[in-house]
Amino acid sequence: MFTIVAATIFSAAFLLAVGTIAWMFALYHQKMAAALLFEPIPQEPPVYHIRIQRNRVRQPAPAAVLSGSALAA
């Protein structure tokens, strides 16, 4: 009699475990497929090469400065 009760409890527990696994698989099937198809973000940071070009202001010639100061004096 003990053997029949033990076998019944073991079978019920086994069927409960199999049912839980099947229920979880059916419930999360789409999420598992999405996780398997996910492409991770690359770990290397992107490298940007930036070149700034601007025209420099030309300094006036020293002769022009002297002639302007000579007129002011």
Short description:
The chain is mainly α and 73 residues long. Helices cover 63% and strands 0% of the residues. The chain crosses the membrane at residues 6-28.
List keywords for this structure.
73 residues; mainly alpha
How would you sum up this structure, described in words?
- The chain is rod-shaped, with a radius of gyration of 41 Å.
- The mean pLDDT is 83.
- By secondary structure, the protein is mainly alpha-helical.
- The protein has three helices and no strands.
Helix-strand string: HHH
Q: Please outline the major beta sheet.
A: none
Overall residue-averaged pLDDT value = 83
**Which radius of gyration do the C-alpha atoms yield?**
41 Å
Q: Total strand count, please?
A: 0
Unreliable segments of 5+ consecutive residues: none
Percentage of residues assigned to helices: 55-70%
Derived from helix and strand composition plus strand pairing, the structural class reads: mainly alpha
Approximate strand percentage:
under 5%
Termini gap = 128 Å
- Shape, please? rod-shaped
Total count of helical runs of at least 4 residues: 3
Keywords: Membrane, Transmembrane, Transmembrane helix
Transmembrane segments: 6-28
